[in-house]
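[recover] target loaded
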């Protein structure tokens, strides 16, 4: 997975590591900024090279997005790598090649995937690699560049895999039955994260907070118990979804298509415009994905479909940036 591995502090020869970070479903409806799960099928790749100069350089960005800043302090992955080397007082620097597989403004964790892929690759070049939890603060630094806030719902799930509760300083993996699947449909429509967050400005009623807290508790309890009925009762976002629904073309129609195919619940993924649904089995998820895609088509939008277990893998080192990632292997 790593080329020409030496004592990592020696940078006279080339040390390179490559990593893949999957897409994710942020918020999972009722867990705004704190709950997310990884989603196999799409992701970002990063190639990180140890260099003698004590700086971070972004050499190339290619893939579905290429016009991102290459100035490290303006780039999510660049900021994450800067935070890592500054915190550890590393004598060497990093050069990054980033391949974007997730569109920006998609609600699939594109900015988070860049951070996590870069950190996982760079971590492999350290004398003593850090735990995934120890990488979390550096990823938060990077995510803040894209969204303006330090939230970990996407980051946590990418770092640990599966469904993760991410507070400001802690990551907790939430067990989910392996049979449960997610259908995620991404319309070809850009919704910038900052715009989606701006839609949430304003006052909220105390009753809404109480209801949302109850719903989140039901979803978490249902996941721990493997009780689909509890999740179905709780997967109802009364805080965020109502304020963002109008930003997603045809959202009501798409959500209805998801629910009509036995969903445990459905909502906007992250800041949108992608829409997801949870299902007790892959067959229902696949049928729902087709119906959801049809609903977007009725709005004049083409879309991409992803169906994967909610227990999808975490970010991982890969042999080569063009390799197909083994999503069965969780580091």
């Amino acid at each position: 997975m790593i080329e020409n591995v030496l004592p990592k502090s020696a940078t006279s020869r080339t040390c390179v590591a490559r990593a893949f970070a999957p897409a994710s479903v942020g918020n999972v409806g009722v867990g705004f900024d704190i709950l997310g799960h990884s989603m196999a099928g799409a992701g970002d790749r990063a190639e990180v090279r140890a260099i003698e100069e004590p700086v971070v350089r972004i050499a190339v960005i290619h893939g579905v997005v290429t016009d991102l800043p290459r100035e490290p302090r303006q780039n999510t992955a660049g900021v994450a790598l800067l935070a890592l080397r500054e915190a550890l007082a590393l004598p060497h620097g990093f050069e990054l090649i980033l391949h974007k597989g997730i569109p920006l403004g998609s609600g699939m964790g594109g900015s988070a995937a860049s951070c996590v892929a870069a950190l996982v690759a760079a971590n492999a070049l350290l004398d003593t690699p850090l735990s995934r939890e120890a990488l979390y603060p550096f990823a938060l630094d990077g995510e803040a560049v894209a969204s303006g806030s330090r939230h970990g719902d996407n980051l946590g799930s990418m770092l640990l895999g599966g469904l993760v509760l991410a507070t400001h300083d802690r990551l907790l993996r939430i067990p989910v039955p392996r049979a449960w699947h997610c259908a995620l449909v991404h319309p070809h429509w850009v919704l910038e994260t900052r715009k989606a967050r701006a839609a949430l400005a304003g006052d909220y009623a105390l009753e809404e907070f109480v209801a949302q807290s109850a719903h989140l508790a039901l979803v978490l309890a249902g996941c721990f118990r493997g009780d689909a009925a509890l999740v179905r009762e709780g997967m109802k976002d009364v805080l965020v979804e109502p304020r963002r629904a109008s930003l997603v073309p045809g959202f009501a129609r798409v959500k209805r298509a998801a629910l009509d195919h036995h969903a445990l619940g459905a909502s906007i993924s992250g800041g949108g415009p992608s829409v997801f649904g949870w299902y007790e089995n892959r067959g229902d998820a696949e049928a729902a994905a087709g119906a959801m895609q049809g609903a977007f088509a009725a709005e004049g939008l083409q879309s991409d479909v992803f169906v994967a277990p909610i227990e999808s893998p975490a970010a991982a080192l890969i042999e080569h940036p063009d390799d197909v990632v083994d999503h069965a292997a969780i580091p």
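[recover] notes: The first strand starts at residue 2 and ends at 3.
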